[in-house]
Amino acid sequence: MIKKIDHIGIAVHDIEQAIRNYTNLLQAKVIHDEIVPSQHLRAVFIKLAKQKIELLYPLNSNSPVAKFLEKRGEGVHHIAFRTNDIRKEIQRLKKEGYRLIQDEPILGAYNKWVCFLHPKDAQGVLIELCQPRKN
After folding, report:
1. Does residue 41 contact residue 58 with C-beta atoms inside 8 Å?
2. Order of strands across the sheet with 127-132?
3. What percent of the chain has pLDDT over 70?
4. In total, how many domains does the chain have?
5. pTM (2 decimals)?
6. Domain span at residue 109?
7. Residue 135: pLDDT band by 50, 70, 90 thresholds?
8. How many CB atoms lie within 10 A of CB 114?
9. What pLDDT, in 10s, does the model give residues 77-127?
10. Of the four listed, 11, 61, 79, 88, which is most buried by Cβ atoms within 10 Å?
């Protein structure tokens, strides 16, 4: 079951400038900063009240975010929804005819399992499902 919006991902060309801009604009702080090898990117999370914004910066041309920036430019990349059982959600969505970019969850930022729904099945919006990993 999808529980809530977890975060909104924003693709950026200059991560340091974006960090300065969003922390100043929102008067918020960076709460997490990491390299995500599976996506060839740096992910920086900024917390605003109970919500999070994820700034996405590609580390090389193999990153899906690099391709996004080349095609669309900076801006909203995805909306992430939290679930308690990502594998069950993947199976439910497949059964209902949705196309998923991954058949199995992959390790994403912030120690979460993630999977993406094809944007063509969500009015052009890239949807991420995410579930915190249990250690």
Report:
1. yes
2. 29-36, 41-48, 51-58, 2-11, 75-83, 127-132, 112-117, 106-108
3. 99
4. 1
5. 0.92
6. 2-132
7. low
8. 23
9. 999 999 999 999 999 999 999 999 998 999 999 999 999 999 999 999 999
10. 11
Task: Give the position of tokens 């969850």.
Answer: 105
The single-letter code of the amino acid at 88 is: K
Angle made by CA atoms 100, 123, 22, in degrees to the nearest 5: 90
Give the start-end residues of each E strand in the chain: 2-11, 29-36, 41-48, 51-58, 75-83, 106-108, 112-117, 127-132
Q: Nearest Cα to 9, choosing from 65, 63, 50?
A: 65
3-state secondary structure of 118: coil
Q: Which CATH number covers residue 10?
A: 3.10.180.10
Q: Which residue has the tokens 């579930």?
A: 131
Q: What is the DSSP letter of 65?
A: H
Q: Binning pLDDT at 50, 70 and 90, where does residue 14 land?
A: very high
Dihedral class, residue 110 (left if φ above 0, else alpha if ψ from -120 to 50, else beta): left
Return the sign of the alpha-carbon dihedral for residues 77, 132, 26, 20. Answer: negative
